[in-house]
């Protein structure tokens, strides 16, 4: 470039040079290449000021995220799969606050029984135990998300958001399943006893933690219902009697 730079171009050049110095040891190679591209676009015979400004703002944002990774904006723009999963998980856990408040209000008002039998407080406790189990499952294998196949950030966030909801649904399913004795694996416990409450809380935690166990239970219930349905709709066996009380001759 042979002609002198104007005021706006000089200002952009100063900011780009400052970015190159500040981000030399912080920015990744792709960002440094983007910075070099912005310098070439600025020093060209026909500078593209709009392109330079766009690249510079992106680089400034990237540098700020690298220098201050705990800022909310940096967390929202992170490319770390584990942080993306945790972000979705935190959003999901915020939904449990109304559940906790509603449960406490029901308890203070003397309780409530669904269909006249199931205690609402027990159901809420079971749901929270399932959410706790699924949250623990995510935290135990949080490092595995960074080593897994790359996926879109939205899918990672949704994974962290939906897993506690799935854990809550499985926990509620477990409560209804064993209360109804549709799958009589365990002996019924005394209703309302401490042993029963501890059993359902532990079961809900395990179902939230292990989706495989919950799916196995669903498969067993499905198979039981299918076998019962086949037995009901099976044709009656043929009547081998002759009507006269005599056995048929061979």
From TrEMBL:
<feature type="transmembrane region" description="Helical">
    <location>
        <begin position="122"/>
        <end position="140"/>
    </location>
</feature>
<protein>
    <submittedName>
        <fullName>Uncharacterized protein</fullName>
    </submittedName>
</protein>
<keyword id="KW-0472">Membrane</keyword>
<feature type="transmembrane region" description="Helical">
    <location>
        <begin position="160"/>
        <end position="178"/>
    </location>
</feature>
<feature type="compositionally biased region" description="Polar residues">
    <location>
        <begin position="241"/>
        <end position="250"/>
    </location>
</feature>
<keyword id="KW-1133">Transmembrane helix</keyword>
<feature type="transmembrane region" description="Helical">
    <location>
        <begin position="82"/>
        <end position="101"/>
    </location>
</feature>
<keyword id="KW-0812">Transmembrane</keyword>
<feature type="region of interest" description="Disordered">
    <location>
        <begin position="230"/>
        <end position="250"/>
    </location>
</feature>
């Amino acid at each position: 470039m042979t002609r002198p730079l104007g005021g706006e171009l000089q200002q952009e050049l100063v900011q780009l040079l400052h970015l190159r110095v500040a981000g030399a040891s912080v920015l990744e190679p792709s960002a440094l290449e983007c910075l070099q591209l912005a310098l070439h676009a600025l020093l060209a015979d026909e500078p593209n000021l709009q392109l330079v400004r766009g690249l510079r703002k992106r680089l400034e944002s990237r540098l700020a995220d690298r220098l201050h990774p705990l800022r909310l904006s940096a967390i929202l723009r992170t490319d770390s799969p584990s942080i993306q999963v945790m972000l979705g998980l935190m959003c999901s856990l915020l939904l449990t606050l109304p559940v906790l408040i509603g449960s406490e209000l029901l308890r203070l008002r003397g309780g409530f029984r669904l269909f006249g039998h199931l205690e609402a407080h027990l159901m809420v406790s079971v749901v929270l135990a399932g959410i706790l189990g699924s949250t623990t499952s995510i935290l135990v294998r949080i490092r595995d998300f960074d080593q897994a196949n790359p996926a879109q950030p939205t899918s990672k966030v949704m994974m962290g958001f939906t897993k506690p909801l799935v854990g809550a649904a499985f926990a509620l399913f477990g409560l209804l399943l064993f209360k109804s004795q549709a799958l009589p694996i365990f002996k019924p416990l005394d209703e309302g006893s401490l042993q029963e409450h501890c059993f359902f809380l532990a079961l809900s935690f395990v179902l939230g933690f292990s989706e495989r166990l919950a799916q196995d239970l669903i498969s067993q219930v499905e198979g039981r219902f299918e076998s019962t349905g086949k037995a009901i709709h099976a044709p009656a066996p043929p009547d081998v009697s002759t009507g006269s009380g005599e056995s048929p001759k061979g």
